[in-house]
Amino acid sequence: MRLEDIFQGSSLRNETCAQFDIKDVQTDSRQASDGSLFIAVPGLTQNGCDYVQDAISRGAIAIVSEIAMRVPEKVHLFLSKNIRLDIPVIAANWTQRAHQKLALYGVTGTKGKTTSVMMLHAILNKAGKESGYITTIERHWKNKTLPSSLTTPGPLELHRDFASMVRVGCDSCVFEVSSHGIDQRRHHGLRFESRIMTNVQSDHLDYHNTLEAYRETKASFLTEAEDEYSVLNLDDSIGMRISKKKKKKSTYAVFDRSADLVATNISQSPEKGLSWEMIYHGKKWEMCAPNLFGLFMVENALAAIGAALIANIEYQAIREALYDFVPPLGRLTRIEGIDLFSVYIDYAHTSDSLEKTLIALKPLAKNKMRLVFGCGGNRDKTKRSEMGRIAVSLADYVYLTSDNSRWEETSSILEDIKKGMGSNGPFFCSEDRQTVINQVIEDGQEGDVILIAGKGHETYQEMKGIRFPFSDWDAVKKAWIKRKRTK
Prior knowledge:
This protein has helices at 3-6, 52-57, 83-94, 113-126, 155-167, 179-183, 205-208, 211-223, 237-243, 295-310, 315-324, 351-361, 382-394, 410-418, 433-443, 472-486, and strands spanning 24-26, 36-39, 60-65, 76-79, 103-108, 131-134, 138-141, 144-147, 172-176, 194-197, 229-233, 249-253, 261-269, 273-280, 283-289, 333-334, 342-346, 369-373, 397-400, 428-429, 449-453, 460-463, 466-469. By secondary structure, it is an alpha/beta fold.
């Protein structure tokens, strides 16, 4: 493709020397090849400018940067006025603006994004659409599923995924929009059928510094396009605030009966899962989701349903999709094959999500509620003691262990958690996660509910910059086999 066409609509659009062909576009110097364009993106810990020479050595013939630098005579350097805004434009051009052929649905919020994305995807497909999705866990279109590295991919990866969806016949895409992605403008230039919110709690303060900055970032995604629909949670203070200003909107709630879409008469049982009555502009529908548990799952469903109703999806398709829906891996997922007690794995890694998950599971415990959790390192430290307080207030037995300690000492993280536990303290504590899971499975009694929280779908533990293979699923299975052999 001609470089001048790739630059169309960006701050580089008037470059007169962009009169040559480009064979590829990359932001990772390791992927640069003969005839490629390399975009030097400034990052939090690394700067793409430091890798320009590596890209050139691999064959890059054009460089986009915000900083002037010396390059070989055969290489063309182009200076961007705002590289964060230019990359999405370049990515869209490079992929022939494939995104314009898709109905896009963006889901943002602190918790529930992955589940709501996959619920809406299921509803759209049940209604006869051909939808793809992008989540923290995976990217999926047609019969292809690929692992995800970021909640919201970088612009180049995002537009390449859109192009892949279009090539196989997709007509829509539902994807997570993270606060990092919003702040870095990865979604710049996209038009959405609906911009959907789940909830806005406290998270990622290591990146945004303050709770208010984090909230404002999330809110900006929902308010920046007046001519696009926003699906808002009226039970959330941010959703309520935005709803008072936004004209083109649809609202939902469990508690606020003024919302357009309301869930009432919610019931839950181990055998039948969740059921509720849904009221939408005076019409009442019965909903049943046998594979779901917890009030927050109803909220996640309402977010997806709100967007589906805007898209004029029929009630029958919505009802059938949610009846068949199985939650994403690690989102309050029960491990099969253990009948003496129930073991659930969940991604809950903030105080709010841990509390909601424990509240959802506690009624299912005919005997004791046992909890395994830890906290991630180099992240918001303020939540650690609060999670400790919630743990001892809702669980009968608390087992403390490592999560992704990253560059922090696990022992220091555990001490921070213990500060919120008071005199109760943990029932069992070890830095080795497998050891703790072995212990809780060994201790489990008939009728117990065991929640292993924090890591969910992850298949690694990150320590000192290294990701070691580790899966809570595998750990539980090993522990259960060990128990059966010894008892």
